[in-house]
Structure formats: structure tokens, C-alpha cells
Amino acid sequence: MTYNEDPTRWTSSPDDAPELLRGAFAAGRDEGPSRGQMRSLALKIAAASAGGAVAVGTVKAASAGQAVATAATWSVGKVATAVALAGTLVTGGALVWRSGTERPEREVAGSARVNANGTAAPEAAESESALGTSAQARGGTSAQARGAARAPEISAQRADGPVVEPLVARGVSAQEHATPEGAVHAGEASRGAQHAAAAGASKGGNDSALDKTRGAASEKHKLAAGSASSAARVERAKATARPSATLSKSSKPTAPPSEIELLHRAQIALQARPREAFQLTQEHRRFYPEGEFAQERDALAIQALLRVGDTEKARDLAASFIRAYPSSPHAHRFREAMGLR
Amino acid sequence: MRGSHLKTANEPASERQIAVSDNDAQALSFDAVIAEHGPYVWRVLRRLGVRSADIEDVWQETFIVVHRKLGSFEGRAQLRTWLSAIAVRVASDYRSRAYRRREQATDELPETGTAASQHEGLLDQERRALLDRLMAELKPEQREVVVLYEFAELPMQEVAEALGCPLQTAYSRLHAGRKALEQAARREAAKQGSR
Prior knowledge:
Chain A is mainly α. Chain A has helices at residues 19-30, 35-50, 65-72, 77-90, 143-146, 186-214, 226-240, 259-272, 274-287, 294-308, 311-324, 329-338, and strands spanning 111-115, 123-127, 134-135, 153-157, 163-164. Chain A has a five-stranded antiparallel beta sheet with strand order 3-2-1-4-5, with helices on one face. Chain B is mainly α. Chain B contains nine helices and no strands. Classes of the chains: A mainly alpha, B mainly alpha. At the A-B interface, helix 1, helix 2, helix 4, helix 6 and helix 10 of A face helix 3, helix 4, helix 5, helix 6 and helix 7 of B.
């Protein structure tokens, strides 16, 4: 049987609908969010996308009271995690490759450093504990206030772990704004901080892609990579507050972890346990070969391989990644970092 | 760990192919997309089986994907078609998760927040609950077509694009879906009558 034109809609012509279905279709057609509900949702997603109080080129997300206050209204932890993931991966937070040196930079220090234009910025102390994480962040106000550029070079590291030296310094002016801006106790406000960090991370991570369609009018959205490392820090704080989960053996076959959960674990493991992080990305591949976050998964896998030291494999995968997702912000950074085309 | 691991693109064909004109693309901003299409996506998600209790989470999940992909949205078709394709995927993932958790996607919590429920009362709530029960009996591919055509009010050509299937396939699914809905409604009526 072939059809040549669209039939009459039951929702718009109830008389054409079977009688038993008329009421149900009409009720379904008329259902929608209230204006208040929509406004609330728009605010939440705006917090994630605009990163209103998250600093450019800084790791200040958790320190901004406004951000925490806004984020505290979030009810969706998993969404924030997803945003943090996307943003963290896109921005410099976890990239460990330095073009030309072909080795991860490592430092041991309990500090966070924001660099721009290749200039070292002052350092801020960062300490993490299971109950209360004090994430002291490096200053700078938001992009719209400063008119700051995006994607400064950021050095972020755990007190007990290696430094991540992303290499994505581009058009940077945030560094000159760097001033310490207080601390947040994530133990008390970890949820809010996570969301705040996620908010900034998301925007920073997607900035370049969005610029394509927004142009100059989106100045307020021009955020930097720094916020991403805040997200990573909050996630690390969470990791220290609970036992680390191993996946493959303990998972119930009937209830595979969600995409976000798997990648969240991989993100947490990336710095200290890159092999585990890589395994988690492969676990994700098995469960969700074409998942919504396949791109983030592959980017994570590349970073994990770099940390493990398997640079050859990482380059191969990065080259494939660039072919598969040529317009991805990750691809841009892999090209820059590895000299790939 | 070679290229074979990586898909050429992980979006359905429809997402890769759908595009808008340059002018439209320039006019796009995430905020504007939310303002203009947020309620639309909300409705589509609800009819695709997202429970009231979960709708805000899933709506945000959808717009996170939109946010991530908006920059690469080149577009030769309507933005709503593209948004619908994303919503369908996110809702499908949601239903899979709900299934794995052995939850009933049709178990509705009382609705308190919608204008409709405030003004039209219990009767409409019951009708919507009935609609959800009936729609839950459709095959996923039928449900998606019915939702995008009847409730999202996309033309069938765009429904087919959003779902990445041929137009005739979309028509067939709509036809079969409507038939299945009628049968389910008759069963439901018989059940009610026998009580």
C-alpha cells in the first residue's frame, strides 16, 4: 500500500478520529508545560549554557556565590554531570598533550595555575578532602563582564596527581584578570558547586561550535576552558568521598550503567587511573556503540591512552577521531595538540 | 583501537542531513531555540513516553545534546525536525533505561504543574493517562511516527527525515500505529465495561 498525501490529523480534526480516542488525543494535544515550569527550565539550562557566574580562564566556578546559588536550584545531578563531562572534555581540563614535546607535562603541587599567553599566573592553593573540598579558584570575572577571550591555557592538577597541561591557548586575555576569589566548601555545597562547575564547563566546551551560528552577538557566551577544570575538581572531590567503583566485574548484566555514569567514572579515573578510564570507555563502547556521548567517549579514550603513555595508539585514534568528527571541538584540539590534520 | 571504532558520525542519517539555510543558521542562538522550541520539545518528550516525574531531567538532557550539536547544525530543513530527531533519540534512551530499571513508563504521578491540569482537572488527567497507556502499546517506531505527526504536527516528509526512514515507511508506520491504537482503545473500553 502506498500513500501520496498526509492523512487528516486526529488531533486537529477530532471528528476524523475514532470516538474512543478523541478525548485522549485532545487531552494529549493540549498538554504542555506551564509558563512557570518553562521559565524555570530555561533558567536551569541557561545556567548550564551561559555559565553566568563562571569565570573566563579561571577555575572560579565553584567560588562564585551566584553560580552556586543558581546551581543549588538544580534538581538534576545527572544532567549536570553530563554537562560537566562534555565541557571538561572539550576544554583543556583533561588534555595532556603538548604539541612538539609529545609528552604529558607533570608537576607535583597542590595548586592550580592559569596561564595565558604563555605567562605563568600566580598560583592558588587547592585542597581536597572527602567531606569538604576547598576549591580555591583563580580569579577573573565572567566573559561578558571582562570581554575576555576564550580558551586560555590552563594548568590544573590534583594535589596528589599529575598536572594536566592543556595546550589550547588561543586568543587569551583572561590571565590578566587573575585574582584569587575565595573558596567554596564543596562538602557543604558540593551539589551546587558541581552544577556551577558544570554550567561553566558546558559553555566553555561548546563555545567554539556555537560561535559558528552566533557570531559577535554571543559575546556573553564566550567562556574559557578554565571552568572545566573546576568541574573536574568537583568530580575528584566526589571521587574521594566514596569508594571508587570498578565496573566490569561488579556490574549486573541486566542493569548496565547509564552512558553518563560510565563516562563520569571514566572522567574521574582519567588522571589517577588512566588504564581504568580507558577500560571504562571501552565498556561504554560495548553498551552504547552509538550512544549520545560517543564523541566524548572517544575523546576520553584518547586522553586516557596519552596518560598511559601509549602515544602511538592515541595518535591513531585521534586521527580517526578527526576524520569521524572533523568539526568537533575535540578534533580541533587534537589537531593542535598532536599536529594532525 | 583503530578507526573502525569510530563511527563516521553517531547521529542518525536524518541529523546529518538536516540543514537550514545560512540565514536561519546565523539567526540561531541557543537561548532563542529554548525560548521558541522548549515547550514543543517538552510535549514531544511527554508523548514519547517520558513520565511527568522525569520530564524536566529528560528535557534538559535533550537540550544539552542540542547545545552540543547546534554549532554543527548546518541544516537544509526545519529546526523543529532536527530537534525532533534529537528528542526521539533521547526519549528512546530514556525508555531503555526505564525498562532496564524495570519501571513502568506509563506509571504516572499526579500532575500538579501544568496549566492544563490546573484548568481542566481530573478528567483531562485521566484522558492523558489513558493516552499514555494506549501509546505504550505501540511499537516504538510506530509511536515515534504518531507522536511526530499528530502531536508535533510535522508534515510526514519531515517525520520521515527526523526518523531517518523513507517517506513510505513513515506512512506505513502511521497507518499501523493508528490501527493499533484503535485496537488498544477497544480493549481498554471492553476492560472498563467489564468492571
